[in-house]
Amino acid sequence: MIEFSHFSFTYRHGKRRALDDITLSIQDGEFVIVAGPSGCGKSTLCLSFNGIIPHMLHGSMEGEVRVNNRNTHNFEVRDLAGEVGIVFQNPDNQIFAMTVEEDVAFGPENIGMSREDMIPKVEDALSLAGLQSCRKRPIHRLSGGQKQRTAIAGIYALSPDILVFDEPTADLDPSGTQEVFDTIRYLHKKEGKTIILIEHKLKTVLPYADRLLFMNEGKITHDLVPDEFGQARSGVAYPSRKPKPGHSIINGSPKPAIILDDVHYHYPDGTPAVNGVSLEIITSEFVAITGENGSGKSTLGMLMKGMLKPDIGTVKIPVLQKDQVPGTSTKIGYLFQNPDDQIVMDRVDKEIACGLHQNTGNSRQVAEKVGRVMDMTGLPDFGDRDPNTLSRGERQRLAFASIIVTEPEILIFDEPTTGQDTENLARLMDCIVNINGQHTTMVMITHDLDLAHACADRIIVMKEGRIVG
């Protein structure tokens, strides 16, 4: 049982309460979904379940949280690890070992579990997460979805009775998403685990839930039971493609923006990631690249940007001059799947302005552009915030803002909608569609087929490093 009693928390450098007077009781065996806009306090609530707040993330705290009648203020995270397991939004925050199997065994080893007890628990966890076939695979070779399933297996191996999932399917393809949701439902129905799930995909997960909590500005605004779920089951209305003036024409033919000719790329251990891809993307075209986890989508995107060099074949970007390096040119913008891979400054406004200072020294123009982009991406009052205090969805929008402010001619997005609530997702996609309407070439890597069909001119499907559709 989990009990919050008038619990409030403000991060050390925060200007407002991340959690504000939370009183909440979650019974053993309940399945509770926590929803709400990006930055409303959902992840902070999760981090309070097992003592990460206040023992590892510091700030001012009022009230108390009790887990099975143990005040989390008086017990370290390691003391509660066998009772509460948390799967974070970003799996890299909880993966420590070199291979999948070693990481799943990491937790049991660290709490001193005997080898004879640990081996079957690791086997069960690998089976539960569908990771038997890649148990010896190095972590750096996993896709985002495979990393998430590794994190789930690592927590499951500790056998906690309370499992907290912070958007566990954000980086998964549709089949992987369903596998994780089926796994969570199995843990609830068959093993009697208490489940707390933060999730934006309400239409899919609400049939599993006993309760739905809505949060806003650090408060729980609604605590609903199934008969009251109502409109929460509705999906997202994506913006439609807007008519374009037409593609750029050279000598009667559309002008190419990206040309790949028989491109091959292998990981350092020899495993093929991209296998014979030939593709031409036209200037101002909006292309969506989809496919299951590990199919080579992100690797293809990085080859287009110039961050990776093909082993065989060529990648040509006609807009670049001969002496320009694709990987460093602001003419090609690239949004990583994980925004933390590209955020480097200690303030939101400085992060957005960072790329502009390479092109102009006019501080007034920089400030105007930064303000305009902050408004476009739903970050109007965030200028002096430290990016580390933002939610995953807010950091994703920040990384997006820092790319579009430089007005690149080609934009490559790797899962740009990760962590976005309905309102901010619609805002983000409307922004992307409008930019594309201004002759910017778009390449969007996504698992969301509805989004791809709504926004893209063309959809490319990848499997095992090849284009199959």
What's this entry about, in short?
The protein is 29% helix and 25% strand. It is α/β, with parallel strands linked by helices. A hairpin with a 2-residue loop joins strand 20 (458-463) and strand 21.
Characteristic key phrases:
469 residues, alpha/beta, 2 domains, six-stranded mixed sheet, 29% helix
Radius of gyration: 23 Å
What is the C-level CATH assignment of the largest domain?
A: Alpha Beta
Distance between the termini: 49 Å
Characterize the biggest β-sheet.
Answer: 6 strands, mixed
CATH architecture of the largest domain: 3-Layer(aba) Sandwich
What does this molecule look like?
Helix content is 29%, strand content 25%. α4 packs across α5, α5 crosses α6 and α11 packs across α12. The model has no long low-confidence stretch (mean pLDDT 87). The chain has a six-stranded mixed β-sheet. Strands 17-18-19-15-20-21 form a six-stranded mixed β-sheet, sandwiched between helices. The chain has two domains: 232 residues, Rossmann fold (3-Layer(aba) Sandwich); 219 residues, P-loop containing nucleotide triphosphate hydrolases (Rossmann fold, 3-Layer(aba) Sandwich), CATH 3.40.50. It has 469 residues and is an alpha/beta fold. It has 14 helices and 21 strands.
